[in-house]
Amino acid sequence: MTTELETVETVVGQGDPRWSVIWLHGLGADGHDFAPIVPELRREGWPTVRFVFPHAPVRPVTINGGMRMRAWYDIAHLDLANRADEAGLQESMAQAEALVAREVARGVPESRIILAGFSQGGAVTLALGMRRALPLAGLVALSTYLPAPDRAKAECRADGARPPVFMAHGLGDPVVPYLAGEMSADVLRECGFAVEWHAYPMMHAVMPQEISDLSDWFEARFRAG
Question: For 150, what's the count of Cα atoms within 13 Å in the CB-facing half-sphere?
Fold first, then answer.
């Protein structure tokens, strides 16, 4: 049984939300981490959007000495191909899927739901996005990588969804190497995804130009939907 996650939520605009953005935070953070950027993203003329920022479960993380913290999966190895604990990843994908279902139940169709994530949260976003049968409006993956890319390619459904993808990465990222992000984007393209790739002069972080570019991308999604 999938444990329901606690969330931080904010609605921007008037009336009932017509769109939803589910945003997964990075290792050791929580749902409050990205909530403050919503006013920076928001533009005049956007439809009413519900932003949902879930808290990851608290679990021990091996590379941090077994310290318990909010994490979407355990990390036992620095090797990116084997970094994500498979059981934890599967659990987090199921929890993200449950959040999508909750938005549908609240009146927002899957075609108007965007799944986003930073670092670990972005890894879950890409892993789930590659395996879904029904289309979301888009995927956002910031400073992240695709876990177990060979397995992901094998499990990418031939009849599955191919939503547009926004990926961004810091050129000097010491946590998730820039090349790992680029290679992940290439895997998605091989599987038929349209990836919009952005590189920035930053480390494992988010910067104003990135938020502006992401805002452009959101606006294009809203216009298309």
Answer: 3
**pLDDT tens-digit series, residues 167-200:** 999 999 999 999 999 999 999 999 999 999 999 9
CA distances from 74 to 59, 83, 87, 124, 171 (A): 7, 8, 9, 12, 25
Q: How far is CA 4 from the centre of its chain?
A: 18
Query: Is there a catalytic annotation at residue 92?
Result: no
| Residue in 55, 111, 198, 204 annotated catalytic | 204
Looking up tokens 């290679």 gives: 183
Active site residue 111: no
CA–CA gap between residue 55 and residue 57 (Å, rounded): 6
Pick the catalytic residue: 74, 85, 92, 119? 119
- Which residue, among 107, 27, 25, has the nearest Cα to 67 in the 3D structure? 27
143 flagged as catalytic: no
User: What pTM, to 2 d.p., does this model score?
Assistant: 0.95
Going by DSSP bridges, is the β-strand pair 113-118/19-24 parallel, antiparallel, or unpaired? parallel
Contact 9, 52 (CB under 8 A): yes
